[in-house]
Write a structure and sequence with these properties.
The protein is α/β, with parallel strands linked by helices and about 210 residues long. Helices cover about 40% and strands about 20% of the residues. The strands form two sheets. The protein has a six-stranded mixed beta sheet, sandwiched between helices.
Length: about 210
């Protein structure tokens, strides 16, 4: 199970996007509406990687356009980052969900390691093309996809980590997922949001 055979070698971002629309690298394409590839400039200096598209993203074909996306946009602004300098994508490019029946609400289901692994060739290919100065992993799924299974968001967040990649030494910052901030109880949510912004500021310092 892998997207590898669907990734055209030497492709630019638009060619990758077009090819990903037809990916059958795992079973997640079957129930989803469409592949949600990425958004943002191929010249962006900062890339943010989420988990997978949600309900709204699946319908619109764009990453981070739902509630978590709105929170993330605000955090990007509050961190003093220029939206035009940010590329956004996801570790897994189809929406994984459960649904009790037709017309019922689609409930997000966390992707498994096999989905992350299957989809990784897309992430590798797009990051090779964009080659940002720093890559921000939003939450555990992205952190696993980018940095391996030993990374822990709570322990490793908010510091610049340098890792050897196929492109050479590259910089990463791990932080919480914006959806996790939304799930924090009311009285603690501001604190969680401020911590997310602080982590994004750390990423901004290397630009
Ligand atoms: N959550 C994600 O991880 N990615 C999206 O694109 C939307 C919500
Ligand atoms: Fe391909 Fe990734 Fe979609 Fe699976 S989730 S079908 S690997 S694009």
């Amino acid at each position: 199970m892998s997207a590898a055979e669907f990734v055209p070698p030497g492709a630019d971002l638009e060619q990758l996007r077009a090819a990903a629309a037809g990916c059958r690298g795992c079973e997640l394409w079957e129930d989803a509406t469409q592949t949600v590839f990425s958004a943002g400039s191929p010249r962006a200096r900062l890339a943010m990687v989420g988990e997978q598209p949600g309900d709204q993203e699946d319908r619109q074909g764009l990453p981070f356009v739902g509630p978590a996306g709105r929170l993330l946009q605000k955090a990007v602004d509050d961190a003093g980052l220029d939206r035009g300098d940010v590329y956004v994508s996801n570790a897994v490019k189809h929406f994984r969900f459960t649904q009790a029946g037709p017309g019922k609400r689609r409930i997000h289901q966390t992707p498994e390691l096999r989905h992350i692994t299957a989809c990784k060739p897309w992430l590798a290919a797009e990051l090779r093309v964009v080659d940002p100065s720093v890559i921000v992993a939003l939450g555990a799924t992205a952190a696993k996809a980018l940095l391996g299974p030993s990374v822990r968001v709570t322990k490793d967040r908010g510091v610049v980590m340098e890792r050897e990649t196929s492109l050479g030494l590259r910089r990463f910052v791990v932080t919480t997922h914006p959806s996790a901030v939304l799930r924090v109880p009311d009285d603690k949510r501001d604190e969680a949001y401020v911590a997310l912004v602080a982590d994004l500021r750390v990423a901004a310092t290397v630009l």
